């Protein structure tokens, strides 16, 4: 599909191939390097979780014992032997499981970061979509106003009456201002298309408008905030650190079994059990540190929750305000401005007051139309911002 935008004041034609919202999202997701990096990190954490759950490998030791180091070939002494020893450290207190759970929580954090990133990409695309679409609407309003001015000029040229020159010049000035504004909107739209192409890794394309905005949220919407959910997982990680610190007081035992072969005496087996003793207080300080860090994270969680609640309330207040403004514009301001313009348009005379009234009515209608578009745009941008907060 080819769309032709005609800027009457500049004779500028710009052809842009439009693409659908869903295709734009798909292209952005498939090409975004941050998404790919997070997906790899998630896969890595899956492997790390499996690694963390595994016990340490058994140790095998080969030995040769000689009572007389200066004569290692001596074979008649009972202390001389060749040995093989197998040692295994046992995760008797489930520390490996806790370590695995910590890595799993880190993976969940990365999954949430990936979801948040995708939501932000969708938000950015929606913002560009809205701005491109609203610029198109602005251009149509400006073109309509220029047509009204052109009609006014035609009436002047075909009339035998003498029109006040100052009002005529004011109309010329208004026309020039509209053309300048049209040029600015054209450039802004080009900038928005460039930004859109950067997000979707495309070239020379714009996006068709699609009304995919969510408009209702529950009172507990803040609980699904990605930032808050990530912080909750961080709390769980610190809780696991406390559990791990508690179990750190209990050392994992190592069981060793050795077989000793002797030349002139009977072979024998050796069994040993070893573990560390927490007598220097390191484990206590690790536990204290874990508790303090957990409290820091909990305090941060409360702060984030409060900030998100306030952000949602501010956005919803802004949304309510703009909706009321839009309703007032559409139900009162615009209809009356159109009626007033029609009234003066059908009764243009050579009177200076009539000319001034028509000029003012034309300008008022233009500003009312642009205000409607601006207000509608802000509503959609607030909706996009609210959507990106959470699930």
UniProtKB/TrEMBL annotation:
Gene Ontology molecular functions: efflux transmembrane transporter activity
Annotated signal peptide: 1-18
Superkingdom, natural source: Bacteria
Segments traversing the membrane: none
Annotated keywords: Coiled coil, Signal
Coiled coil: 305-332
Name under which the protein is recorded: TolC family protein
Species in which this protein is naturally found: Helicobacter brantae
């Amino acid at each position: 599909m080819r769309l032709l935008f005609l800027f009457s004041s500049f004779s500028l034609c710009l052809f842009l191939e439009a693409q659908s919202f869903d295709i734009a999202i798909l292209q952005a997701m498939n090409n975004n390097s941050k998404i790919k990096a997070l997906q790899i990190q998630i896969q890595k954490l899956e492997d790390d979780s499996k690694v963390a759950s595994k016990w340490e490998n058994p140790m095998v030791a080969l030995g040769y014992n000689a009572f007389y180091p200066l004569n290692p070939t001596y074979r008649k002494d009972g202390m001389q032997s060749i040995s093989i020893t197998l040692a295994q450290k046992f995760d008797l207190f489930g520390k490996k499981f806790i370590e695995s759970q910590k890595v799993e929580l880190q993976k969940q954090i990365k999954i949430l970061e990936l979801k948040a990133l995708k939501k932000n990409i969708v938000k950015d695309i929606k913002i560009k979509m809205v701005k491109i679409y609203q610029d198109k609407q602005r251009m149509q309003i400006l073109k309509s106003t220029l047509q009204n001015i052109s009609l006014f000029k035609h009436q002047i040229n075909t009339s035998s009456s003498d029109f006040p020159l100052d009002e005529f010049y004011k109309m010329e000035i208004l026309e020039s201002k509209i053309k300048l504004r049209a040029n600015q909107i054209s450039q802004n739209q080009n900038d928005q298309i460039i930004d859109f192409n950067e997000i979707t890794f495309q070239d020379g394309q714009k996006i068709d408008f699609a009304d995919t905005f969510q408009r209702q949220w529950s009172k507990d919407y803040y609980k699904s905030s990605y930032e808050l959910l990530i912080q909750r997982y961080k709390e769980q990680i610190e809780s696991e650190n406390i559990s791990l610190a508690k179990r750190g007081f209990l050392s994992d035992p190592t069981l060793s079994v050795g077989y000793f072969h002797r030349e002139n005496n009977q072979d024998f087996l050796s069994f040993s059990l070893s573990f560390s003793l927490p007598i220097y207080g390191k484990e206590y300080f690790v536990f204290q540190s874990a508790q303090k860090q957990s409290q820091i994270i909990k305090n941060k969680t409360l702060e984030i929750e409060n900030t998100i609640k306030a952000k949602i309330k501010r956005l919803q207040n802004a949304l309510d305000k703009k909706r009321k403004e839009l309703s007032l514009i559409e139900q009162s301001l615009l209809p009356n401005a159109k009626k007033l313009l029609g009234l003066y348009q059908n009764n243009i005379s050579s009177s200076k007051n009539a000319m001034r009234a028509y000029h003012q009515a034309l300008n008022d209608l233009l500003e009312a139309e642009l205000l409607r578009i601006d207000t509608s745009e802000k509503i959609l941008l607030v909706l996009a911002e609210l959507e990106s907060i959470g699930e």
